Amino acid sequence: MNSKKTKLWRRCAIGLAAGVLVAGLVTAYPNSPAASVTILVPWSGPELDDFENAVVTPFHDLTGISVDVESTRALDEVLAADTQRGDAPGLAVIQSPRLLAYYANRGMVQPVPTAVAEDLKGDDPRWLPWLQSIPGKQAEYGAFVKVDLNSLLWHGPDTPAALPTDWQDLLDLGTAAGQATPVCLGLASPPVSGWPGTNWIDDVFLHEFPSSQYTAWANGELNWDTSADVRQAWSDWGRILGGGEAVFGGSAGALLTSDGDAGSGMFTSKPGCEFDHESSYAPAAYIGDKGAEPAHKDAGTGTQVPANFGFVPFPAKVSSDADVWETSGDIAAMFTATPAAEQFLEFMVEPTTQLRWIQIPNSGAYSLDRSIEPGYYPDTLSRSIAATLQNPAYTFCFDAADLMPSDMQSAFYQAVLEYVNDPGSGNLTSILASLEAAQERAYSKTADSVTYPVFSCH
Amino acid sequence: VSAATADAEGIDAAAETTPLEPSNTPALLSRLLAALVAATLLVGIGGIVTYTKARAAISHVSTLGEPVVVEIGAARAALADADRLALTLAVPGRAAPNAGSNALSGLGTQYQNDIAVAEQSLDQATVDNVAGPQGTQLLQTIEGLVVSYNAIVEQADTAYQDSSKTTLGLAALWDASTLMQSESAGTLAELRKPHVSSTDLGGAASVLTDLDALRIEEQTALDQQRASAWNAQWPVAALIAAALILAAALICTQIQVSRRFRRGWNIRLLAATLLVLLLAAATAQVFSFREDLSAGLRTYTTVSADYGAETDALRVESQFSFESQLCSGAAELCTVTLASALGDYTRDVSSQADYAALNQAAASGTLPDLVAEDQQEVADGREAYAADVQSANADDGLWLAVIALSTALAPILISWALWSRLQEYRYRTR
Predict the structure, then answer these.
(1) Tens of pLDDT along B108-134?
(2) CA end-to-end distance (rounded Å), chain A
(3) What is the Cα–Cα distance from B208 to B187, expressed in whole angstroms?
(4) H-helix or E-strand containing A184?
(5) pTM
(6) In this structure, are residues B347 and B312 in contact, taking their beta carbons and an 8 Å threshold?
(7) Residue A341: is its pLDDT beyond 80?
(8) Strands A91-94 and A324-334, how do they pair?
(9) B322 interaction partners in chain A (CB closer than 8 Å)
(10) What confidence tier does A384 reach under pLDDT thresholds 50, 70, 90?
């Protein structure tokens, strides 16, 4: 009897244990987060797709680490808000060496990890000083993941003969144009409308005056209202535009057309304009323009068909300045150092990734890695641009607007719009006076407490 | 005669049918007792756990999402209206170029109110965000873009007050409105693909498409949380099924015991069966609460989807009106360089015909305040939703008490019923 009782209770106990086990299973929800890294990028559309295909997906396939790509047009604002909240992304791609210096000096950006620093030794050394953000320190605080060549005048299929070949040709465009409108210009790019005009003024300044003067201007050392060189660069640009008359659609056309659509006028059956001042990214911008044929492989024969558009270098006033080029680039910087962020940064800059990226047709991506020779690029236009970027005889100067404080940059953009609306001499005086006032505010000691490096041409 | 004696007599009567066979009934009976008690405890404890979890999930869902999607809708409607009003700066007679530097702003108080409503709604949406860091990022981008938008509209307003700068004003308005409205092909489509790992936080899209994207992000996050809350309820269904199987097993036991011992219905076993059925019914109440909440959510989703529809329709008219101004001075551009931008900009041309009436209303300052009307509709929807939520959360603990009581009493009754049968074999084992 006792043994039966014992058995009975044992069974009850087993039953209860089973019940507790089931109840435990019902209430338990396992959750194990995987490694991931967030990267904030300014790219969108095809540029973003190329980044995902060439970099993000292969990285995820190789490491299993998830990359959360956050693309925003208002990157600087989002980054500022994130860092203020103490919630910075792992990595961010910024386009201004000055902004990089700001974050580096505030301790918000980490120097690149040793493996990336080693990799940067294989890059073109002329670009590295723009990454050395803290004066007196040799460390790089970011890495160029792709770069642009800016000093290019692009032409459509029917207009190469009309291109200016020397400085005087360029200056005379506006006056010699007559009824024609040779210049394609689009300044609309909200919320940063006006920036394509600043690139024009940068190039005019750079190819009219010595590069040392250009860097003095970019570093805030020239007065906008009293420097004869600054005024000359503006008024020469106004002359090239023929006071707006040489621009397709006139001043209103320039103000209302977006930067990406400016080149469309070159590809119409009767071209509305003859050349477009754009960076090396232009072929990607022209995709989709009716009449534009980017380089491609013929579907039938498999042979490479070149693009039906091309470019010439920006003319220079004196021949020695023809070897000077305006450039810009996308810098990946690490805001929150994690193993995943370090791994992804290293992956972005390693030669195999860079090669995969630049070989996407019409991606507009150019690498600084010296092992990626021009022959690796997919078509004649990109090979020619790559050869220019790798030519040791050339000097590169960074986009001046990207070296200015953000308030100065905004004032510069707005000034371009004001000037194109009214390119008269009286208006220029008033614009330059307000730019000088903006410069005094933006560079004042109280604007921020950071000691910036002096940015030079290399 | 005691009950035990009567039971013993019953056993003897049963034993007479198989006098030479040793009985295996006690062993079977004891196993059956153990199994029934264990199963009842299992179902009862499981019932308490799953009911509590399912209730918590319903309460959680009822606190989610009610505000955030609507705050986004409110911001969207207010911004669409603000842009509609800003574009009327270009309407002749609305903000006539005035050489005087003391000219009053062409932007009325309704525009300023719209921007204020949008900013407040976005702030509130940040507090109520359920889409995690991606939602926060999108909200920050949108807030940044709204500030930029407002600055550009103010530039346009200033430019329109100087007769030499009307083109600059038109360009600024075009910039502002493009920033607000243009839908870049592909960007939004990408965002709508659920498998896309990256989130395009703005890219080439506009404030309104970013807001649409944000609403989708938030709605997806809400749906996921709801789905996860509803998934937490499958054990409830399993528990009810288990309770019904247990009740069936108790009825079988009732029949077998009745036959074997040649007795009538065992009241204790019957009571235990009823308690198990009561436990199942109490657990099933979760579904009733859930249905109340689902009905509320359906009402609410409908109201949120309607938010700003009228504003959007009039906004399209104002876009068309603005385009007419834009292209009147630059017809060549409108067919070449602006063509793709205009295609992006005017997504819906169905209500373009009334733009002349809109121009007239804008010039005479009689534009209707649509945002206020929308807000009233949404307020009504909110009230209906709140009533459903209250009903879904109206749980005073009675049902849980019933489950707990059944869990405690049913095993006792089962043991009592079968133990007394087992006792009848005490003397037969000698």
Answers:
(1) 788 888 899 899 989 988 988 888 877
(2) 100
(3) 13
(4) strand A183-184
(5) 0.75
(6) no
(7) yes
(8) antiparallel
(9) none
(10) very high
